Amino acid sequence: MPMDMITTTAALAAFSTRAAAFDFVTVDTEFLRETTYWPKLCLIQAATADEAVLIDPLAPGLDLAPFLELLANEKVRKVFHAARQDIEIFVKLTGKVPLNIFDTQIAASVCGFGDSVSYDSLVRQITKVELDKSSRFTDWSARPLSEKQKVYALADVTHLRDIYLALVTQLDDSGRWDWVEDELAVLESVHTYVVEPEHAWERLKAKLNKPRDVAALKLLAAWREKRAQDNDQPRSRILKDDALVELAMQRPTSAEGFDALRAVQKGFGRSNAAQDILALIARVEALSKTDLPKLPERPRGPSPKGAVGDLVRVLLKAVSEQHGVATRIIATSDEIDALVLDDDADVPALKGWRRKLFGEKALAIKHGKIGLAAAKSGVIEIEILDDDEE
Known about the structure:
Blueprint: H1 9-19, E1 24-32, E2 40-47, E3 52-55, H2 65-71, E4 77-80, H3 84-94, E5 101-103, H4 104-110, H5 119-127, H6 147-174, H7 177-187, H8 211-231, H9 235-238, H10 241-250, H11 272-286, H12 307-323, H13 327-330, H14 333-341, H15 352-366, E6 370-375, E7 378-383
Parallel strand pairs: 1-4, 4-5
Antiparallel strand pairs: 1-2, 2-3, 6-7
């Protein structure tokens, strides 16, 4: 039976009114982004407990306002899977994050399903259904959509209802709601989705150890971000990340200097973009030493790659197995390095539920207060007594 899509504002308003009567609504989107900076919204899928709909944002004259009002209704929980890109679309449309959101990927990660578990995997594990993935990479901007595309799209929100209810039950039984809420706090911040050009360099994770290199990277990354936003182009279409880092370190002073760089395409030095970059580099070279960024001091402590770091990693694996949570959810390798170097490192592993579960024990190992031993039941912790307690 052919499936219709919502293509008029009146029909969308009627659905949004019906949906507002339910405790939750599942939401997903299909979009294109290969050739743009901003995602191009092509389809919205939504489902309540008793209906599922496809909304066509490309339909002439359709006003999304009724659905956007539903997203802003804090009495109705909006359930997504891997919500970040979907929410980014709605932030671009409204300037705000939908209220009362829930991400099943986050919830699944603290319920023992692993780090960044896919929707297909959750459907398989919880509902025992095998999804047809053949329409995943189709052109969602083309009209009309095929019936196969519509079936695929609806499955993204219909099975999501069952996944949500199953995860809520697990969270209630395990008492891990606070874990999920800690993670959702990032998704609830509008700053997660809006990249200010002056902060764009922070996403590059480049390990530069010279102040002038860092100053150059900050200016170059800000220039690329603004250019990408203004022209609605992917960052990589302007310059790839490795090219930005190489430019920050090498800082050519002429058009010909670009040809000596490995990560920059030949002939780039004769482009208008290269002229902008040369002007930025000239600004960097003109900075006095007092105007350069101050690099953080390197904490002095045991090597994170030495014995202490190894013990903390063994602890992480033991805690992960004991609580049925993927190691990466609790702490990353970089976070372990940071806490080994600094008791007050600004990392998630030393905050909230992660600190209670793992961080406090990691610091105790670092300071020789507990040790680890192998037992039939797995790795166990052993309290180490001070000499005056023996």
